[in-house]
Design goal:
Elements lengths: L1 H27 L1 H20 L11 E6 L1 E16 L3 E4 L5 E6 L6 E2 L4 E5 L2 H36 L5 H33 L2 E3 L4 E3 L9 E2 L6 E4 L4 E5 L3 H15 L13 E5 L10 E5 L12 E5 L11 E18 L4 E3 L2 E7 L4 E13 L2 E6 L6 E5 L1 H10 L1 H6 L1 E2 L1 E4 L3 H6 L2
Parallel strand pairs: 1-22
Antiparallel strand pairs: 1-20, 2-11, 2-15, 3-10, 4-6, 4-9, 5-8, 6-7, 8-10, 11-14, 12-15, 13-14, 15-19, 16-17, 17-18, 18-19, 18-21
């Protein structure tokens, strides 16, 4: 049995050897490489076909702020026009040809500064003539004095008739009067001569001259205007109802009940034409005596210091005066307010973190915030950043906008606070 089993065990070894040789040949065969490549591609394509879709995006991030409740001052605001307290229209007092302009257009001038020079020759001649007339009158008076001095003792001695002395005395009085008239004419001629030089009556800014060298100017010629600009006045016209809110302070001022040199404690703010507040506050300086029957307004003026002449006559601005206080006003950051065709909306955050569009009514702007007069509650939260994304979502899904758009809220940090921490 042992000799018969050996061939039986030996045959499998031969078979295994042949299989190994076949496997080695198959591994080296190009056909096997193609098979492997096909299997790889099949697995890859099968895997791609089973790849899952990307996850849906979560709620958009937004920044929200709580509604602020506080007392807010209420301001009245009116259009104002600037003008100098004094605007001197320079008109010559005599007629003559303009020889010189002695200032530069638009420059500051001082009181008593020479502005224009007229041709003085005819007035110099008039002065010479008046001096000659004064001399003649003095000579005539001297002769009359001598006649009276000579004839007085003769009349007393009856050497001449009394009427001769009376004539001498009458002539003496006439000559004295002629001398006075001649002196007055001389003074007038000298005054006319001085008026050929035109001086500024005030400190201020001289405008552009209306007269050119060589023009014949006279007493009706407005050559230039000199305006006082420091201080400068802003005229405005509040309504009667608003004026009554601060009328007691104004009345105390104009009635003299306030200490001399003081003014109503009403800081007046000027907003310039470029919407920039003027650096200095003003004070009420003038109130008209009556309310305009046609407009229901009363004219007032506020005075502002203007040492740099930044404010000029004829300019426009806006006057702001505190008239009352808005107690427990609701405020939100200005970027939270959406304005569409004069309508205002705010996006309010619900307790379920859903954004809901809500119409509101607005009041005054107070610093970076905006007063909301209707449409909000003190415990509301409003969206400040991310409004554009919510508007796009509302336009694409109106039904979802009605129910509220889910959002991921984060605290709103104002830009000023971010910058201050750097």
């Amino acid at each position: 049995m042992h000799l018969k089993e050996q061939p039986h065990r030996y045959r499998p070894r031969i078979a295994n050897s042949k299989q190994s040789e076949q496997a080695t040949w198959l591994a080296k065969s190009p056909l096997w490489s193609l098979v492997n490549l096909g299997i790889f591609l099949f697995i890859a394509l099968t895997g791609c076909g089973k790849e899952q879709a990307p996850p849906k995006p979560g709620p958009p991030d937004v920044e929200v702020a709580s509604v602020i409740q506080q007392n807010v001052p209420v301001f009245g605001e009116w259009v104002a026009q600037l003008n100098g307290p004094v605007n001197a229209e320079i008109t010559p007092k005599v007629q003559g040809y303009l020889l010189q302009q002695n200032y530069q257009n638009g420059f500051f001038v001082k009181k008593g500064q020479l502005l224009f020079t007229l041709d003085p020759r005819q007035y110099e001649a008039a002065v010479d003539q008046a001096k000659a007339e004064v001399g003649t009158a003095e000579a005539n008076l001297a002769k009359a004095d001598n006649d009276v001095q000579r004839d007085t003792p003769l009349a007393a001695q009856k050497a001449i008739a009394q009427r001769d002395l009376d004539t001498d005395l009458t002539t003496q009085e006439a000559m004295r009067s002629q001398l006075q008239a001649a002196k007055a004419s001389l003074a007038n001629a000298e005054l006319n001569l001085t008026w050929t030089k035109v001086y500024s009556p005030i400190d201020g800014i001289a405008g552009v001259s209306n007269s050119q060298i060589g023009d014949l100017v006279g007493t009706t010629t407005k050559m230039v205007t000199v305006s006082q600009v420091n201080p400068i006045w802003a005229y405005f016209n509040p309504s009667e109802s608003l004026f009554l809110k601060f009328a007691p302070q104004v009345t105390a001022f104009i009635s003299g009940k306030l200490p001399r040199g003081t003014h109503p404690q009403m800081p007046v703010e000027l907003i310039q034409a470029n919407d920039v507040p003027y650096t200095s506050s003003g004070k009420i300086i003038y109130v008209n005596r009556q309310v305009g029957t046609g407009t229901g307004t009363i004219q007032m003026a506020a005075e502002f210091p203007n040492p740099q002449a930044v404010l000029r006559p004829g300019g426009y601005g806006r006057i702001r005066i505190k008239v009352s206080d808005n107690e427990n006003a609701l405020l939100v950051p200005q970027p939270a307010v959406i304005e569409v065709q004069s309508e205002y909306m705010i996006i309010v955050l619900t307790p379920e973190n859903k954004a809901v569009f809500r119409p509101v009514k607005v009041g005054d702007r107070v610093g970076p915030n905006w007063v909301i007069t209707e449409g909000l509650k003190p415990d509301d939260k409003v969206v400040v950043e991310g409004i554009e994304r919510l508007q796009m979502a509302a336009a694409a899904m109106p039904e979802l906008a009605k129910e509220g758009i889910p959002v991921n809220p984060k605290p709103y940090v104002p830009a000023a606070a971010v910058g201050g921490g750097d």
